[in-house]
TrEMBL record:
The entry's keywords: Membrane, Transmembrane, Transmembrane helix
Residues passing through the membrane, by range: 17-35, 47-69, 81-100, 107-127
Gene Ontology molecular function, alphabetical: electron transfer activity; heme binding
One Pfam assignment: DUF2231
UniProt cross-references to InterPro entries, sorted A to Z: Cyt_c-like_dom_sf, Cyt_c_Planctomycete-type, DUF2231_TM, Leu-rich_rpt, LRR_dom_sf
Residue span, DUF2231 domain: 14-131
Organism from which the protein derives: Flavihumibacter solisilvae
Protein name stated in the entry: Uncharacterized protein
Domain Cytochrome C Planctomycete-type: 175-234
Length: 471
């Protein structure tokens, strides 16, 4: 293998290392120049000239390495030019100071020292703007003590624009510092749709419809101490809900204009959207009802059993990186689901999420499912499940979320789940539960989020109320 080494590239990336030493030396030399005017400190005078020489030479090296770094194309051109010329001016004045120091009057010498300090401050500010964003000074005053921003509620979440109202604020808060107008690491810019579509050096920053294969998402899911993890570990990190929001947006396709109501949303997204509706960005409550990984560790699942299920068309994946807990999805094995269910038995300790939406299962299949001690999320939407099958689920000790959308269950059949101490979410849209039954179901399950298929939109004092008279 032939490894090509780019000397300019190496010098460019050494710029942050090289630049700070001459800054310190020059500032110290200027300080010595100023205070040595007092008799008490006049012995510092001989040290000023060599310090100025070292600082000036370091400034020249900083200009050279900075030039090579600017060739990477990762920074805003106009801001780079300003920073570059300010750096050249600093080096030039420092060199002039070195050669003329002992040939000019003391007042002029002191004036030059002040000018050098001013140039260093101005150049450093421009460098900080390139590295941390143009608002890096204000950020220290506006975001003290926290890494996330409390966002204003979105009263009617269904009418919100997915990109402008939900996605863009996340990118602005967590990504623009490195991928905005002032800086484009990896030649990636995320502050405008055209730049997002263009992508960066890798070419697969976002694969529309394939969030899991998009580099943006895969890097966010890497361990925080991984060198490729984004954002860098010293920067504010995305919450779990924010990552899910970005995945949902990417999976929806090339979408910058659609509203929330125009995109399909699963159970997890409904929780997140409802949290955003109340002003929660997902750092705490948005996924509280979706905590599906038990705290106790579990042994890895039997590899042979997993292989049999995969060959039968069942998707078996870990629910989280480096976890032995699993989810099973019958999306590609829906037709033969009733006969395949038995293959899940060896995985009953590891299985926490079972997706049987649209699968050809009957009430009899639920007898086996009722014996899964770790199961926390069960999706049975659009299946032939009836009240008879629900009675076999009352033995699930950890069940938190149950999706019965489009099934034949009734309000009477739900009574068998009343004793559950863990159930938190119940989805009943398009089931045989009647509209007039929902009040009774809420009393039956006072601590459960009962979803009838519509969002609950709170009323705020700032909302507009239209009053009409009787006709």
């Amino acid at each position: 293998m032939i490894v090509l080494i780019s000397i300019p590239g190496i010098l460019g990336h050494l710029h942050p290392v090289i630049v700070h030493l001459p800054i310190g030396i020059l500032l110290l030399a200027c300080l010595f120049e100023l205070i040595s005017m007092r008799p008490r400190y006049e012995k510092l005078q001989p040290a000023v000239s060599p310090m100025l020489f070292m600082g000036a030479m370091g400034s020249v090296m900083s200009c050279i390495s900075g030039y090579f770094l600017s060739l990477s194309g990762e920074y805003d051109g106009s801001l780079v030019a300003s920073h570059q010329w300010a750096g050249i001016a600093t080096a030039a004045v420092a060199l002039l100071y070195v050669f003329l120091r002992n040939k000019v009057a003391i007042p002029l010498r002191l004036s030059v020292a002040v000018i050098v300090c001013g140039l260093i401050t101005f150049t450093g500010h421009l460098g900080g703007s390139l590295t941390h964003g143009s608002d890096y000074l204000a950020a220290g005053w506006t975001d003290v003590g926290g890494s996330t921003v409390k966002r204003a509620p979105i009263p009617v979440i269904e009418e919100a624009a997915v990109y402008a109202d939900l996605v863009q604020p996340v990118l602005a808060e967590k990504c623009y510092n490195c991928h905005g107008a002032g800086k484009q690491k990896g030649k990636l810019r995320l502050d405008q749709p055209d730049f997002i579509l263009k992508g960066g050096e890798s070419g697969n920053t976002i694969l529309w419809g394939k969030a899991a294969e998009s580099e943006m998402i895969s890097r966010m899911l890497l361990p925080v101490n991984d060198d490729d993890h984004m954002p860098p570990r010293e920067k504010p990190q995305l919450t779990a809900a924010e990552v899910e929001l970005l995945k949902w947006w990417i999976n929806s396709g090339n979408n910058f204009t659609q509203k929330v109501k125009e995109l399909p949303s699963d159970e997890k997204m409904k929780h997140i959207l409802l949290a955003l509706q109340s002003g929660d960005n997902g750092s705490t409550t948005a996924l509280a009802a979706d905590k599906i990984i038990p705290e106790a560790p579990v042994d890895a699942a039997d590899a042979v059993a997993v292989d049999k299920l995969k060959k039968a068309g069942v998707m078996i994946v870990p629910v989280e990186r480096n976890s032995n807990y699993l989810s099973a999805n019958f999306v590609t094995a829906a037709n033969g689901a009733d006969s395949i269910i038995a293959l899940l038995s060896p995985l009953k300790k590891q299985l926490v999420w079972l997706k049987l939406d649209n699968a050809g299962i009957t009430d009899e299949s639920l007898s086996l499912i009722g014996d899964f001690p770790s199961l926390r999320k069960l999706q049975l939407s659009n299946t032939a499940i009836t009240d008879k099958g629900l009675s076999k689920l009352q033995s699930l000790p950890e069940l938190q979320s149950l999706n019965l959308v489009g099934t034949g269950v009734t309000a009477k059949g739900l009574q068998v789940l009343q004793q559950s101490k863990t159930l938190r979410s119940l989805y009943l849209y398009k089931s045989n539960v009647k509209k007039e039954d929902y009040a009774g179901i809420k009393k039956m399950f006072p601590k459960v989020d009962v979803d009838s298929g519509n969002y609950v939109v709170p009323t705020f004092m700032t909302d507009t109320t239209v009053v009409t008279g009787k006709k």
